[in-house]
Amino acid sequence: MAYSSERKASVIAKMLPPHNMPLQRLSQEEGISIGTLSRWRAEARARGQLLPDGQAGPEGWTARDKFAAVIETAAMNEAELSEYCRSRGLYPEQIRVWREACERANDWDRAASRQIARETKDAQQRIRDLERELARKEKALAEAAALMVLRKKAHAIWGPREGGDE
User: Fold this and answer.
1) Is 30 helix (H, G, I), strand (E, B) or coil?
2) 60, 52 in Cβ contact below 8 A?
3) Tens of pLDDT along 7-60?
4) d(Cα 91, Cα 98) in Å, to the nearest integer?
5) Cα 138 from Cα 110, distance rounded (Å)
6) 37 contact partners, CB below 8 Å, separation of at least 6
7) CA–CA separation, 134 vs 121, rounded Å?
8) Distance CA 55, CA 19 (A)
9) What is 111-157 written as a DSSP string?
10) For residue range 67-123, what is the model confidence (pLDDT) as tens digits?
């Protein structure tokens, strides 16, 4: 069934904050299948529209939706930010927290590379220590084997020692 663009826009508006109506409830109220509503929401998101899932409050927003809200509010002053937040059921503090999280996310690459470098350095030191230990034990084993061979040769040449060492 083809729906008019006005009906489609009004249904999508019900998905937006502050309503954030879940698809199941919206489907029952509007008589439109959940699949159609999901497709409309996906198309609106593809066009760049901020359309969080219909869960209560901003906790149900995806990372993409939060990032979009941060971008939308980046150039706003306090009054504009307050109006934006009221219209979407948010608090300005939530936007600030999301902005800080986005800023930290961009530093993750640098912090992760530092952590990897530190772990690599520690692993290389451990490898050197283990190789040194292995070389020491191989030398001791070779020395013990040489002593055993010499003892056998001495026993073969001179016979067993007096006192019972066989």
Assistant:
1) helix
2) yes
3) 888 888 887 766 667 788 888 888 889 889 888 888 887 776 766 655 545 666
4) 11
5) 42
6) 11, 15, 23, 26, 27, 30
7) 20
8) 10
9) HHHHHHHHHHHHHHHHHHHHHHHHHHHHHHHHHHHHHHHHHHHHHHH
10) 888 998 999 999 999 998 887 778 899 899 889 888 887 777 777 788 899 999 999
